[in-house]
Amino acid sequence: MEKPIAIQHNTIKHETVQTVNARELHAFLEVNSNFRDWIKNRIKEYNFQENQDFIIFAKILAKSLRGRPSMEYHLTLDMAKELSMLERNEKSKEARQYFIECERHVKQVVTPQIDYSSSQAMIGFLNYLQGQINQKDTIIEDLKPKAMALESLQRHNGLFGLTEAAKILEMQPKQFILFLQQKGWVYRRTFGALNMRMMP
């Protein structure tokens, strides 16, 4: 392509995607109609969806009359390819091939190929996998006591004494009772027994 159209990165639906400025595409394709009519008609005619196929930014141009903002459309590469095909000219074929090449380049960057014939590459890959396994094992070890505590709570249907609750929470009973008193969830009567305060 003699004059490549700038590829930008924008976020659509929480995902970073490659986009093209619709004005630049319009100019490159040498479309006869004015930009505003062209983009609005294409969006309506082919049912393109905002925040799926394109996004819009308001941009105030210095030379614009009365400072009125112009609408900048940023198209996904899929929409840009489709619009290019609709023009049916040499420029449209050129643009479509360019967008396909851009997508191909991104896929190669995202999914690097491993050279399985290289022992160093295999060792590196196996070390990476072992690291992933170790990380998961650490997470499992951290979650195991919590899972056991939840299972114990389920077995008792929520009915257990303060001493047993302290054991489940891996606390000393005196520390646990003191904690509950500080929070105002239990209180001690003058003759020594603990009473629970009902929480709303």
Describe the structure.
With 200 residues, the protein is an alpha+beta fold. The chain folds into two domains: 7-110, no CATH class; 145-200, Arc Repressor Mutant, subunit A (Orthogonal Bundle). 52% of the residues lie in helices and 17% in strands. It has seven helices and six strands, in the order ββααββαααααββ. The strands form two sheets. Strands 1-2-4-3 form a four-stranded antiparallel β-sheet. Strands 5-6 form a two-stranded antiparallel ribbon. Strand 3 (54-60) and strand 4 form a beta hairpin. The longest helix is centred in the last third of the chain and has 37 residues, at 119-155. The protein is elongated, with a radius of gyration of 32 Å. The relative contact order is 0.08.
C-alpha-based Rg, rounded: 32 Å
Hey, roughly how much beta strand do the residues contain?
Answer: 15-25%
**Can you write the helix and strand succession as a string?**
EEHHEEHHHHHEE
Strand line-up in the sheet with most strands:
1-2-4-3
Tally of helical segments: 7
Q: Main β-sheet, in a few words?
A: 4 strands, antiparallel
Uncertain ranges: none
Helix content: 40-55%
General shape: elongated
In total, the number of strands is 6
Q: In total, how many domains does the architecture comprise?
A: 2
Mean pLDDT figure: 81
Distance between the termini: 70 Å
Judged by helices, strands and strand pairing, the structural class is: alpha+beta
